[in-house]
Design a protein that fits this description.
By secondary structure, the protein is an alpha+beta fold. It has five helices and ten strands; from the N terminus they run ααααββββββββββα. The chain has two domains: about 90 residues; about 130 residues, Immunoglobulin-like, CATH 2.60.40. Bound molecules: copper (II) ion.
């Protein structure tokens, strides 16, 4: 039983990523490493993640060391007679209280303070499309796909010149991108691993997220909320372009948009007026 568990863990921890890496032509490390950060502010989240992991590893090591050292020092071989303690002496209580306080203030409160700061100063400060040049995109999640809507030439959403794509998000780099997100059916979550962010897509409500991409390339988008049978297949592709390449693509997509958006077909206009 224990052996089976052990080998299974080893398999999933090492062998499985190794096979997957070989299949995708990646190195083993590339497969198990966290996704590369391609956004302006993703490092804030990476830092917080590393801090939590580091603090956990530090305190976990202390606890394990304690168990090992005391097991050795107070083993039956060295101490024939058992010594009973209830940990209710003043020194014991003070020691435990000091340990708890150190963890609470040094880790928990610090995480709360930093994440609160990141949220209020960065992530919860959306760009103002009336004052700066922002790429606005409406995202519709549904079982089991992602649809993206760009406002088109008139810069107004839900009109016949909108560019609409399926599982295919394209954005320029070095410019703020502002998403408004909703869902057609159940709760999904719009997850872009390479910017370290995700946001729920809720039926009947519009949520939002903004970011700035910094590196051109091809990336992936996933659904991060168990949303039914084919949740695992709910993948979209993200292409980050230089501004020139983006303009080229957008101009071309614009041409087809007007041909594809039949003004008589109401199902085409699933978008909403930007708010
Ligand atoms: Cu989903």
């Amino acid at each position: 039983m224990v052996r089976t568990l052990f080998y299974n863990s080893v398999f999933f921890l090492f062998t499985f990523p190794a096979f997957a890496a070989a299949k995708k032509d990646l190195s083993f490390w590339e497969m198990i490493a966290p996704p590369e950060d391609i956004s302006e502010n993703g490092h804030l989240i990476t830092w917080l993640f590393n801090y939590v992991t580091g603090a956990n590893v530090f305190f976990m090591t202390l606890v394990i060391l304690g168990i090992v050292v005391f097991s050795y020092l107070y083993s039956a071989k060295r101490h024939k007679k058992a010594y009973y303690t209830y940990g209710d002496k003043k020194a014991h209580i003070l020691f435990v209280a000091a340990c708890c306080l150190a963890v609470f203030l040094g880790v928990d409160m610090n995480i709360t303070r930093i994440s609160n700061e990141d949220y209020t100063k960065v992530f919860n400060k959306p760009p103002d499309p009336t004052k700066e040049d922002v790429v606005r995109i409406e995202v519709l999640a549904q079982q089991w796909m992602w649809k993206f809507r760009y406002p088109g030439e008139d810069n107004v959403f839900n009109t016949a010149d909108d560019v609409v794509t399926l599982n295919d998000l394209r954005v320029p780099i070095n410019k703020k991108v502002y998403f408004q997100i909703t869902s057609k059916d159940v709760i999904h979550a719009f997850y872009i691993p390479n910017i370290k962010r995700k946001i729920d897509a809720l039926p009947g409500k519009i949520t939002w997220m903004w970011t700035k991409f910094m590196k051109a390339g091809n990336w992936e988008i996933a659904c991060a909320e168990m949303c039914g049978t084919h949740h695992y297949k709910m993948q979209a592709f993200l292409t980050t372009y230089t501004q020139d390449d983006f303009d080229k693509w957008y101009k071309n997509a614009q041409k087809y948009a007007e041909l594809e958006n039949n003004p008589e077909d109401p199902t085409v206009f699933w978008g909403w007026k930007w708010y």
